[in-house]
Design brief:
11 helices; alpha/beta; Purple Acid Phosphatase, chain A, domain 2; binds fe (ii) ion; 5-stranded mixed β-sheet; 24% helix
């Protein structure tokens, strides 16, 4: 067994290899190999297919063994990695650009959240702060707070190209095994910024990214996502660059089902600012009616996507901004003393609630979607896409508490949510989309973790969260 593997001695020697490429490669497939585990040959072939088609390079971070797979200090790698070791592509550290580095931090593969305690990694008084990719079989990502005019800083883990053999037969080992992902991180270097997306392999080794599936037999083909959850919309507060990039992305991916969250901001009647005369004077929408009209026009624009076959279906999740902000406005009687225009609109809407029996999602549908462009599932309904609960905004936790990655996972298992405006992947996985709109709204003071980002789910439950940085989400394809 041992003679077929790369020894610990070779593993250590890679630390002295100069692995930063000077060549033209700008696309990378980054994954990790766990010691004392077998490489999935089909997945490796599919990765190499992607590298050939996209002119990419494979970087394999070498990690420690699953605990319990042998003597604790022995790290032996599958022999198939030897050529990658010889060429410097299997390594323990790699610098992509000033803002992104990859490193093997010797994270225990049985650590259930590999980013626990890692928030300060990548911060140095000499080099500043950068994003960091860690080798680990569980795929997670977590943006860190950054200040104004600072590029995003995100911590990532990779998934593995080694199989989940060798985990301990105990509680932690069984959970770690269930979370082990045959997968990696596609990285594209775009000057000082970078684009990165998780991918996962199926049993035949194939994986999908940006609407194209790559196979182990040197073939690839287009694949429409089953589902796409846009970052929180907040109509009227769209970011122009994000909006243009999202339109390009929608036409490129053509998702079957498109999901909207926090569609209506309800800034015009917000309880956050209703006692603040300065904030009220700066409101974009001076009346509730003007905001509802803007949302109706926005939905008509989305309706064209459906009519032209870019998407097949559009739906809108019950969120805290819409309809909860509106229902609170009504229940607190604020429309009675909120200017003549809002009182008139408020009375009309209250009449729809009291006399017509409409509330929450049904009320929104009647107010902004008379053409029936959108579906409006209620809060207490469920929709699963390839195992992911998608009719969940993520603002509600357990027994009336606030939502968190842990609480939504306990309630729903794997799910795709929004609300935090902070895109990320948490163990489960729980997929967080970001925001569609302006990152720095007036209420965002100081640093922020918000980003423009959308969640995409493909057949087989393969997913990717697509970040939009400075109006771009990938390098142009050849
Ligand atoms: Fe929200
Ligand atoms: Fe939101």
């Amino acid at each position: 067994m041992k003679q077929n593997r790369t020894s610990k001695h070779n593993f250590k020697s890679t630390r002295s290899l100069k692995t930063k490429r000077k060549g033209p490669a700008k696309r990378y497939f980054v994954t990790c190999a766990t010691a004392n585990a077998t490489v999935d040959k089909k997945f490796l072939a599919a990765i190499q297919n992607w590298c050939d088609e996209e002119n990419g390079e494979l970087i394999v971070l070498l990690g420690p063994p699953h605990r319990g797979s042998g003597p604790r200090n022995e790290a032996v790698y599958d022999k198939v990695l030897q050529p990658l070791l010889d060429s410097g592509h299997a390594t323990v550290e790699f610098a992509f650009n000033k803002n992104l580095q990859a490193i093997d931090a010797q994270l225990n593969p049985q650590q259930l959240n590999p980013l626990t305690g890692m928030d300060h990694y990548g911060v140095s008084h000499k080099t500043g702060a950068s994003s960091v990719i860690f080798g680990h079989p569980i795929q997670v990502s977590k943006p860190q707070a950054v200040g104004v005019a600072t590029l995003p800083r995100i911590l990532w883990t990779t998934g593995a190209l080694t199989r989940p053999n060798g985990y301990q037969y105990n509680r932690i080992g069984k959970i770690a095994e269930s979370r082990h992902v045959l997968g990696g991180l596609i990285v594209e270097i775009d000057g000082p910024i970078y684009h990165a997306r998780h991918v996962q392999a199926d049993k035949k080794g194939s994986f999908v990214t940006l609407g194209r599936r790559y196979f182990a037999d040197k073939k690839s083909k287009e694949e429409r996502p089953l589902f796409m959850k846009l970052g929180d919309i907040h109509v009227g507060f769209e970011d122009a660059l994000s909006e243009k990039a999202t339109t390009r992305l929608l036409h490129q991916l053509r998702p079957h089902s498109l999901r909207l969250e926090d569609l209506i901001d309800f800034e015009s009647i917000s309880h956050h600012t209703h006692k603040d005369p300065i904030a009220i004077s700066k409101r974009k929408f001076k009346t509730l009616d003007s905001e509802l009209q803007a949302v109706q026009a926005y939905l008509l624009g989305l309706g064209e996507l459906r009519e032209t076959g870019v998407v097949d279906r559009i739906s809108c999740t019950h969120s805290n901004h819409s309809p909860d902000h509106l229902m609170r406005y009504l229940k607190e009687w604020r429309f009675i003393d909120d200017g003549a225009d809002n009182t008139r609109t408020g009375v009309k809407i209250m009449n729809m609630v009291l006399n017509d029996g409409l509330s929450d999602q049904d009320l929104l549908a009647a107010l902004v979607d008379p053409s029936g462009i959108c579906e409006w599932p209620r809060l207490d309904t469920s929709e699963r896409i390839e195992g992911f609960e998608v009719n969940c905004h993520g603002h509600l936790g357990i027994n009336g508490s606030r939502g968190s990655p842990g609480s939504v996972y306990k309630a729903f298992g794997p799910c795709a949510v929004g609300h935090s405006h902070t895109p990320g992947v948490y163990p489960g996985p729980v997929l967080y989309s970001g925001t569609y709109g302006i990152i720095r709204r007036s209420y965002v003071k100081g640093s922020t973790t918000a980003l423009n980002a959308h969640t995409v789910i493909y057949k087989g439950g393969h997913f990717e969260i697509i970040n939009i940085i400075e109006g771009r989400y990938c390098l142009p394809r050849k």
